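User: Some background: our group keeps a shared notebook of sequences we're curious about, and every so often someone picks one and asks for a predicted structure to add to the entry. Today it's my turn. The entry only has the sequence so far, pasted here. Could you supply the structure so I can complete it?
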Amino acid sequence: MISVSNKEWSERKLNTNLVNKLSQDNNFSQILSKLIISRNFNDEEIHSIKHLKNTNFSNVFNFNEDYKKSIDLVINCVKNKETICILGDYDVDGSCSTALLLKFFKSINHPVYFYIPDRIKDGYGPSVKLFKEIIKKNPKLIIMVDCGSNANNAINFLNEKKIKSLIIDHHQINQPYPKASSIINPKKNNGYIQYDYFCATTLTYFFLELLVVKIKSNFVLKDYLIFVLLATVCDVMPLRYVNRIIAIKTLDEFNLDKIISIKKIYEVLGRSNKISINDLGYLIGPILNAGGRLGHSSHSVKLLSSDNDEEIDQIVKKLIELNEKRKTFEDSILNSIDYKKIENDNQNVIIYYDPSINEGLIGIIAARLKDIFNKPAIVLTSSQDLLKGSARSITGFDIGLVFNNALNSKLITKGGGHKMAAGFSIDKNNLKSFTEFINNSYNNMCKNINKNYFFYESKISSSSFNSNFNVEINKLCPFGPGNSEPIFLFEKLKISKVKIIDNKHISNIFISNNGFSISSISFNSINKTIGNYLINYKKEINVIGHLKDNFWNNKKTLQLVVKDLVI
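Assistant: Of course. Here's the predicted structure to add to the notebook entry:
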């Protein structure tokens, strides 16, 4: 069926025999069984649904050779009291993994310091120039987290200086690998590629778990599982498999009092102590990222690793202030974009260049364009003699792999990433060739994808649409990347009590034939086809969207998030 926004929607086709068997074997409802089958949950994930409170995970790297080698490397440094430097990326994943390592080394009174590169001055990841500055404090080991996988020249420099190096990273890695003392990266494809859905903080957590046991430390690592979940969500890693189990465990057991930095953010913002995936992705994450985006890259690490109440207070206030500035800048950029031109260009991959955009904001703008058009989006700005770009992708288009190929083809001077996000630098003269390369890559990788074709899980009649329905849906929680909120077609609803919010969004009440009513929100729908129908249409309409629990003033209500409408 064709929607009012000209999208083609169809119900997802499933093997009914598999659905029925799953339902019978596990005493699941039909709708829950449908969702499990459509997402291809494995046995461990199904077990997590049946036994939510008894869900546990184990270290998957117990016998991994890279981990063994890396642990021996660090233990040797610890025994000899050799100074360690931690070099992290300026995003949430880099901050969380850096803070986690700092917390541990400080707990055993080991000499340690950290460095987070300045996005503009230093650029992404290790370089010879950066290491010349870092080694002034005479480290014997540099641990690189969330970066370093392609820093061959920089690692060679360290080797010349007789400085050991450990890389813990999840980005694309090229052969020949850097000649680091040890490398932990599932993308090396040396036996643990199946865990390439882990972010750097997850890899670091499992590393520390083995290290804590090996040196018989009293460090309570599980108190910091929230760092793992926060980084996973903010780095858009899938909430599936082990990540799903970690998420369930963390949300169930997290004690806000143990992580004063995050508690302080909640207090300043006047939020409740109940933490959620949405809070991590849309509240905590942007605040922590604000420092790195606007020239204060070390703030988030200082915050997450600090035990000083006064310091925490100051940094939280500063980061919230920076995040408000970021929002203002972002709104200004988004308001200046010619969306009609992008739409009329009709390219498979959006490539948007604006030399005036702050380097720290290009990733956010790319994410917004990706969401608006449901296409991979690349945003570029000027940076000295080069262009700097940031990319956000959609399922099926591995942008990290594409940029890895672009680097190998010398189309970009520097770059890397993972499936859903990447960053790079490029010579202005290569922009035309790069654009052709990106679009050809999309055509080869996604030739069988119909970008205007969408699926909903099931039709929901007005008679079965009630509050109990969402109880079943929520058994799949937590929702997030790789396990998104299920989308349904809600049939024959009447539009009532329409309200415009912030001149952007539309709130209204939908009423079913049996009298059940539900509040709804349609984001950024003003002056769009969906918004026009919500304001003016008087007949029954079919609504495509997902349900969510909305918390406002500590009160929970069921809300329908509108994605599309079908007459």
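Suggested note for the entry: The longest strand covers residues 488-501. The CA atoms of residues 18 and 504 lie 43 Å apart.
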